[in-house]
Design a protein that fits this description.
215 residues, alpha+beta, Glutaredoxin, 11% strand
Length: 215
C-alpha cells in the first residue's frame, strides 16, 4: 500500500509539472466529473460553520508535492471569500509522527505560523523530523517551548485529532496527496486536474457551483 502511495505521489508530481505547459483552452475548460474531479460517495458531513462552503486540503509534511503546493495554496487561501471555510487534514501517510507533529502544532495554535518552517526543515534542510528531539530542536529556534510541545505531543487530544484525521482521509478515499475536497461533495487533486494551478481553478469552479446552488 505504501509503495502504491509513493508511486501515486510521484505520478502526481509529473502530472503537475506537465500541466504547467497545458494550452490555455484546456486550462480554462469547464471541470468535468471523472476527469478533473470526482464525486465523493457517500457525501460527507462538513465541519464548516452554517452557511459556509468547506474546502479541505489533504496533505503530508513529508510529501515533496505538498511542499511545492504550499506557497501556491497559501496565496489562494488568503484570497478566499468570506463564505468559504478552509481547513487542512494531515493524512496518516509516511511517518505517522509527522501527522502527530501537525496536530500538536494545531493544538498549540502554531500550525499556520510554523508550517513553512516544518516544510523547509524537511525538504530543504533534509531534517526528517522523525523524532521528538529533532522536532523540538528545530521548533525551539522559532520560539516553541520544549516542555509544552512534548506534553501536547503526547496528549490524548492530539491522538484523538489524529484518529479523526485518519477517519476523514479514509471516508474521502484519499490515496495520494496533495488532494482537495469541496463541501463534502467533490474531490480533486493536481494529478487529476493537471497541475497545481489547474486544481485551484477546479476548486474555484466547484465553490462557485456550490454557491449558486444555494440561491
Amino acid at each position: 500500500m505504501m509503495q502504491a502511495r509513493r508511486r501515486w505521489i510521484a505520478a502526481a508530481g509529473a502530472a503537475a509539472l506537465a500541466g504547467v505547459f497545458a494550452p490555455p483552452a484546456a486550462a480554462q475548460a469547464t471541470p468535468r466529473d471523472g476527469r478533473d474531479f470526482r464525486l465523493v460517495k457517500p457525501q460527507q458531513a462538513t465541519e464548516a460553520p452554517a452557511g459556509k462552503i468547506e474546502v479541505i486540503e489533504f496533505f503530508w509534511y513529508g510529501c515533496p508535492h505538498c511542499n511545492a503546493l504550499e506557497p501556491v495554496i497559501k496565496e489562494w487561501v488568503a484570497k478566499l471569500p468570506a463564505d468559504v471555510a478552509f481547513r487542512r487534514v494531515h493524512v496518516p501517510f509516511g511517518d505517522r509522527r509527522h501527522q502527530q507533529l501537525f496536530y500538536t502544532l494545531e493544538a498549540m495554535g502554531k500550525a499556520d505560523a510554523l508550517g513553512d518552517k516544518v516544510f523547509h526543515a524537511i525538504h530543504v534542510d533534509r531534517d526528517r523530523l522523525d523524532t521528538v528531539d529533532r522536532m523540538t530542536a528545530m521548533l525551539s529556534r522559532h520560539g516553541v517551548d520544549r516542555k509544552q510541545f512534548t506534553d501536547t505531543f503526547e496528549s490524548f487530544a492530539v491522538r484523538t485529532k489524529m484518529r479523526r484525521a485518519t477517519q476523514v482521509s479514509e471516508a474521502y478515499g484519499v490515496d495520494g496527496v496533495p488532494a482537495m475536497a469541496v463541501n463534502g461533495k467533490y474531490y480533486t487533486s493536481p494529478s487529476m486536474a493537471g497541475s497545481n494551478q489547474a486544481a485551484l481553478r477546479v476548486m474555484d469552479a466547484l465553490i462557485a457551483q456550490e454557491r449558486q446552488a444555494r440561491k
